[in-house]
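Appendix B. Extra example for self-study. Work through it before the problem class; the solution is given directly after the inputs so you can check yourself.
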Amino acid sequence: MTIQTELVRAVELFQLPFMQRALMGGVLTGLMGGLMGSFTILRQLSFFSDTLGHSALLGISIGFLLGLDPSWVLMPFTVLFALGVTYFLERADLWTDALLNIVYSASLAIGIILLSLREDYQGGINNLLFGDILAVQTGDLIFSAMLLVVCALFIGLTLRSQILLTLHEPLAISRGVAVSAQRTTFIVLLSLVVGISIEAVGVLLISAFIVIPACAARLLSRTFTQYILISAGLGALSAILGMVTSAFLYWPSGPSIVTAQLVLFVLAIIVPKPHSWGTFLQKIQSPKNSKGSFKK
Amino acid sequence: MSDPVLVVQDLTVYRESYAAVQNVSFTVPAGMDTAIVGPNGAGKSTLIQAILGILPRRSGDVFALGQPLSAKGRLPAAVREQIAYLPQSFLFDRRIPITVRELVGLGWDRLGLQLPWVGQRARRQAVREALMRAEAWHLRDQLVSALSGGETKRVLLAYCLARPRRLLILDEAPAGLDARSETDFYQLLHQLKKEQGWAILQISHDLDMVRQSCDRVLCLNRTLLCEGTPDHALSPETLSLAYGADFVRYHHSCQARAHYDHSD
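Solution. Structure tokens for the complete assembly:
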């Protein structure tokens, strides 16, 4: 088969409704992950988002055991779990990463034990761990789009408070920012984003959607606003690149998107940084740095 | 005389199991510079943080611009807007990508729900004026993480200056500034007080500066030891109570030597 034939096949593939839904789902997940991820990594909540992803397995297992649709159990479970863990972290006088490790391992272990009680769990575990973006339905897309709008409104309307809170909490309190309310709302939205993305990208890969585009954006940005926009943009771009690669090379979709995120991250490390450009421009514009060779 | 901008009544604040500040009452009049002095661990920063609602208080009342600080540390937004606070240390994650312009802009912003692009022209103008006034305009496009300690202080001062205020609260603000910048800093405070009527409440360890620049002094060592003019509050008797007699003897010998060198 020639490359041209493969290209035609890949293009034809994207004319199928399930591929279009998958692409749209990937872009929505990428945008949400990038947007919320930008604040998540600065507030050092990356491991928290990973723990939320793994706890989702426990939520799904409980849904299975109760004979309910796991999708309906997952969202409220993730939110309640996130709030419970936050409460626990604020009150326990122990290291956050150690406590999160306990929660993370325990919820994974209990989730797998509960799933083992069901005879039909074996087939589904793979999809739970790695997700199945090709199975995204129109209802999922509508819910994702609504959640994206809510996240964008929250970040957009409280942007200044969020920045000050991330930068220096006492300064934010002295300006009257309702720290507890802002933080709780952020955690609830983050857990909803994680919960809704689990079916598409899986328990193991969800934190990549939160962390990698934001880290790449941090390397590429010069201002806070740029950083948030680039993070969301890279999330969406990696979803498109990943889906195209997946269609072209027959790779699984979720892992292809994460690989695309990794490639963008590596590129962000390699390319010259905006501050280097600034220094370079200052150097060539500064009269101090002219060697005087043009003097007559 | 106009109403005081800050009234503190019987304020008690606990740090874990001990009272870091106990039954402290005082007022800060409008247009006056009030200094809080006292040894390390006297509860000065704790007092200020409780006034701002950063730390919870055990008992007592705080009124800022006539409005009570709620038990949860809340004040009306219109009151918050008129109070600026410059913390003792500005520790933040240096990987956060924020420029000087963005940080000073936060000093101008009203922090309720708002669209980020509303009022951009006025914001830019306010940021420019504040940075010029703090002599930090040349730093405008730098990342805050790239600034030295003294430059960071200037930028934070610009953050406070971005909007007209009625009360400026400073926690050892000039620490980290060089001698010239420190003089400029106090001149600017004097100007804000005289020309714009700002009240200033500042923690300081520089007793000579307090004697020269401040109108009133609160001498604190967990409780308020005395309150009054610098001459009264910084008398050897009061300082002995706060710092101990040895310190006062040493301080006076240094002052006498400086006076002798100067007249020589």
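Self-check: The first helix of chain B runs from residue 44 to 52. If your reasoning did not lead you there, revisit section 3.
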